[in-house]
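Protocol step 4 of 6: record predicted structures for both targets in the notebook before any analysis. Target 1:
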Amino acid sequence: MDDKKVRVRYAPSPTGFLHIGNAQSALFNYLFAKHFGGTMVLRIEDTDTKRNVPHGEDSQIENLHWLGIDWDEGPDKPNPKYAPYHQTQRVSLYHKYIQQLLDKGFAYKDYTTEDELKVMRDEQRKNGEAPHYDGRWYGRSEEDQKAAEKQGLKPDVRLHLPSNHIYAWDDIVKGNVQFNSDNMGGDFIIEKSNGMPTYNFAVVIDDYLMDITHVLRGDDHIANTPKQIAVYEALGITPPRFGHITLIYNPKTGKKLSKRDKETLQFISQYKNQGYLSEAIFNFIAFLGWSPVGEKELYSKDELIKAYDPDRMSKSPAFFDQHKLDWMNSQYIKNADVADLTDRIMDLIKEGESEIAKKLQDVNLPNLREFIKHVTKVYQREVYKLTDIMEKVYFFANVDSETFDYSQFDDFSPVVVRLILMQFRRELLDASEKGDIDFDTIIRSVGNATGIKGRELYFPLNVTFTGNTNAPQVGSILKLYSISTIINLVDKALTGTEVKS
């Protein structure tokens, strides 16, 4: 790594919310900065005002924080040397450099109308040429410009590209990459007729003035890089190191993830609302385009920062493996503190962004938090997401009104099932009178009294109290119910056995 202190940036536009691709770029910039003891900058590229969405910037910031990604400088942490951090507040800075390029003859005003551009492109396609700007206003006289302005035309400003010129860079991920200026679509616009700079110009000025040393971004930006290098060269500025991170692909289609992939959640807020843990998402995304040495797959954030090595960034596509994510999330849930998981579930309920969260908002339990904590303790080793636990909470809180499938008793003798349930009822009432209820003890007593053990004992009890033959720790689950609820469930199950006397 160079002696110069590392400065990277994550620069989203508020034209949408934080999606998995944004998060990937932000995360690798974060790991890069932290691993090398550098600075991460958050910059908001908001010049495309027509496409900006309400709360787009807030969504980016809120969900980055949820993921565990923080920055050293940004709109909320301004460094006077580099502020402001919104491009719309930096327009006067861009004009200075636009004028510099105009004065040197590296840029020029273009008065071509939209209709003229359309005719030009149609003609090029007709001739089998790739559409490109033909440079018709390059070198035109002041008289021509004044005549165009008299017609009310407002010019764009274009950067002139030398012919047959190679723009090359040593990419952190891809190695040597180069483009020929003849294949870049011709002289490109650096300032629109409304006075706003284009992305490929503003980003150069911002990176230069903010002393950015390394630019890590998605592979979909690779065609922008030669244009930006062209601006650097025209201004006589040394560009930063570039690295283009592999994009994320759908393994089923082999295509880049898009909003059409309905089976894949697109936005980080969706993962949060569906009960994925931020630590699991951070860990999962870190493996989309990078891999550590060895077979270990579960890493804390600090471990990832220490292990991160840009030389191990992948040139191959990163495939989004939903099963891997679910497994990873389940591991984090298994190893988490029950009280912490309970707090997170309470937060999800309060926010009410999922259907199950909204349903739980209407659950009237005086001890909801303790109820959730108990369910979490029982099921945290069985689930993939926090919403799985929340579904269990809702089920158990409303178990009296649930309809169970008693046909599951068909695998057992109706006489045996009835014997177990009648004995359970007696043992429960007896323990209740004594004021000493321990459900595991009651179940053992039922087994001793009936001589029924193992699967034949537990499966009927599981169906009776949970509606499913598979239920972990049925004795613990029973602690969630009132005595009257338990008696009611036993009586319903007895009716469901349809035993003839």
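Target 2:
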Amino acid sequence: MKESISKKQGCKLHSGQKVVGRWQGNRYQIIKELGWGATGTVYLTRMNNNLAALKVGRDAMSITSEVNVLRHFSKVQGNHLGPSLFDVDDLVTSAGTFPFYVMEYLEGEEVIPFLKNRGQEWIGILVVQLLSDLDRLHQEGWVFGDLKPENLLVTGPPVRIRWFDVGGTTRMGRAVKEYTEFFDRGYWGLGGRKAEAPYDLFSVSMLMINSAYPSRFDRNEKENLSYLMSRVSAKPALKHYEQIIKNGLLGRYNEAWEMRKALVDLIGQTSFRKPAKSQQLVREKKAGPLKGEIPSKQPQNRKAYKRKKRVEKKRSSGLVETFLVASFLLLAYVLYLFVQMM
């Protein structure tokens, strides 16, 4: 089957097509297209009976940059900073020669569908993991740049957020080379496009907003910050993180670990906060029985009264014991999640 060329996608490959590297001679069979971006198209491919992701670029310069990033990440201890790199080569076609590389295929679920299926409360856990990886990335002198749900996957079990497209990764201090408007602080008039940690953290805040607004929305030409925060306040799932999101939008966090710490502290406070008594229940107790309601009968004698008190005390002790056990199990679960995130 002949290859076709698209101005946007470069070399277009087809399902079932065989790809042979010009220099290494490794053979791959294309299964389907996974997606495409500014630097090329990614395909699911089969390599020695194993699945992998093959990215064909339009020019050697952009592909070389991404390969260098992946090679650098592979040397980082405890690497979660991207997929493993397997092969780098050229593909010769009738229309020309195109560079490609093959990397680990991360099988998982996109962030927005994951939250829709599992519940919005997972956004805090996923962002804590993401901030841990961004902190490592920044320490290595890189900024992710084009941080958005489309470049992230949730794998597992255990549940783990991973990124699989490093096309926008930029050396700190340079201009961000690739971005998506909704997640770009320059688009919202809240900062420049210099590659620095706060640029990524702005995108993290926008990612949290996007989790509650999957279809996204356009900017307000006058007061973008107020407009964004009004959107946050309108969603109960976001309002809980309101201050953290605002700080990220305003660049008040200089490092990813600062935003992560604030988020971990907030999650911890929420998990172990003792629920307040229902105000409605308190008012009802003070007011006594409602009009027309038959009050409960009082014990007929002292012996019956003591027996009733013993039952109430036993029931109260059981409730306290149940609450303590539930709290312990919740603490153990949260600690388990944090261990998996590290």
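Step 5 preliminary note on target 2. The longest strand covers residues 27-36. Residues 1-8, 272-300, 317-326 have pLDDT under 50 and may be disordered.
Proceed to step 6 after PI sign-off.
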